[in-house]
Structure formats: C-alpha cells, structure tokens
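hiii so um. not sure if this is the right channel but i have a protein structure encoded as tokens and i wanna go backwards to a sequence. like what aa goes where. can anyone help
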C-alpha cells in the first residue's frame, strides 16, 4: 500500500505546502482549518465552497499522494477521529525566555511524533538490512545536512563498519564512483532537490550501490530515485525554517538506524567499541 494512502493527510499537506500554487494553497488551508467539514462534504460541495473546479480539488488530492478525493477524506477522517491536535509554534513579542523555550521544545516533540507516525516499517526494515550487509557505508549531505551526515559517521564508526561522511560535492561523486554493490550510500537532503546530492546519487546508482534517502515527506527527485526513502515531517515557523526544524527528526532516524544495526552486529560492535575506548583513553589525563 502506498504510504500516502495509509493516512497522514495533514502531514502531507504541511510537507508540500511551499510547493503549492495559489489555488492549491486555498484548498490546503481549508482542509487544515476545517477537517470536520471536509469529511462530511462531497467533492462538488468543497469545490463550490472554495469557488474552484472539481478537477482542481481532484488534482490536489493526487498531488499529495491519494488516489482521489474519497481516499483523502478517509485518511483525514482517521486523523479527526483519533483526536490528532496541532501544536503551533506561536511566539509572541514579550514572551519570556522560559515560555519561548517551552514552545520550541513542544515544537520539537511534535516534529518527532509526526515523523514517527509516517515511518514506514517495511522501508525502515529494508534500510537496516542494507546497512547490516554493507562492507562500507558513506553518508552524503550538504550545508546543514552535512552536519547530520557527520553525526551519522560518528555513530556508525562504533558498529565496526567502515564509514565516512562527505559534505563536499566533489568528494561525494569521486567516492561514489569507487563504491560497489556491497556498499551503501545514505543521502541526506531536506528538500530532496539539491543538485549536488542528486548527482552523487546518480553516480552511486551507476555503480549499483544500494541507496537510502532521508528527506521531507514531499515527493521529490531524491525520494523517487533512492532505493529506500525515509521521511521526516516538520513545520516552518516565523522563527525557524522547515529545514532547520527537520534536523532533529533526521538525527532521530539516524539514531534509530544505528541502534538497529548495533543490535544486529552486537559481537562485532563490542569489539569495535573496546578498541575505540582504548584509543580514546590515551587522550585523557
């Protein structure tokens, strides 16, 4: 079953919002603001209320990953029935420091909860299996995603699997060209449209390298081309971009992959950590 057909209507809309045209944003706003009305309305009623064509509504439903209006309504109804509540990061001028901190923490919690809710178990299992079988794992990310790639490298070194992280686009394509079918590349890009990352992906695919992508829930070139896409969900606010909010979710996906691989490589990992601790001990007074 397509992941989009398995609920998460509001997540899909929020993740894709910045890509919508004017009429699509009008539809999106109406669905997010009046979900109860939508689940009791027909497509022609909704179109009439918004003064748009029925075909426009239908295309919108297709764009966010549903087969049609009815499938979108069913997904939305499940969210309304289960009482999913929105937590908006609304910081007012004059809020004290503690209040701001609480709002940021709640927003981060919501990002993690939303991302967990769209985590596809089959895709995640496949990603873990790729990593467990890999002779070598390389993490690619540019800009802010490069920091996530470095964090992943730092964690996965403990598993005993040879790893590296590259944030330079030239190093990415050069290294990808030397990989084989026994290796794995993990590509991190919030937008999924970064040209350098997509170029590295194509080089890796030419070598037959299994690929994992960590990206936003929006359909993107990266999510369509990697062997296993893993999605994050985050909300843009006046104070933080969507990409900035997504980093905590990206880190958590990396953590979850790392722990699963660690469990699968328990004995090898213990040996690796023992050697690492011995090496690090010489750095301490």
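sure thing!! here u go:
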């Amino acid at each position: 079953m397509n992941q989009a057909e398995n609920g998460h209507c509001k997540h899909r809309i929020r993740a894709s919002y910045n890509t919508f045209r004017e009429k699509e944003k009008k539809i999106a706003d109406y669905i997010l603001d009046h979900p109860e009305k939508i689940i009791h309305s027909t497509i022609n009623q909704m179109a009439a209320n918004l003064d748009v064509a029925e075909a426009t509504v239908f295309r919108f439903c297709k764009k966010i990953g549903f087969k049609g209006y009815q499938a979108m309504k069913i997904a939305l109804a499940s969210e309304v029935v289960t009482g999913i509540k929105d937590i908006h990061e609304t910081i007012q001028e004059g809020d004290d420091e503690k209040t701001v901190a609480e709002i940021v923490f709640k927003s981060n919690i919501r990002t993690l909860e939303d991302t967990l809710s769209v985590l596809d178990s089959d895709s995640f299992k496949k990603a873990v299996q790729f990593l467990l079988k890999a002779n070598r794992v390389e993490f690619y990310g540019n800009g802010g995603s490069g920091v996530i790639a470095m964090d992943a490298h730092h964690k996965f070194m403990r598993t005993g699997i040879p790893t590296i992280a590259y944030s330079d686009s030239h190093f990415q394509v050069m290294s990808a060209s030397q990989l084989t079918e026994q290796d794995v590349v993990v590509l991190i890009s919030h937008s999924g449209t970064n040209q350098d990352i997509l170029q590295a992906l194509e080089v890796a695919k030419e070598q037959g390298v299994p690929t994992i992508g960590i990206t936003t829930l929006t359909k993107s070139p990266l999510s369509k081309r990697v062997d296993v896409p893993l999605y994050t969900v985050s909300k843009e606010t006046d104070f933080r971009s969507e990409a900035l909010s997504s980093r905590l979710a990206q880190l958590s996906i990396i953590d979850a992959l790392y722990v699963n691989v660690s469990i699968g490589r328990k004995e090898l990992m213990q040996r690796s950590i023992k050697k690492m601790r011995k090496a690090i001990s010489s750095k301490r007074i």
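oh and The beta strands are 137-141, 163-166, 184-188, 211-216, 228-232.
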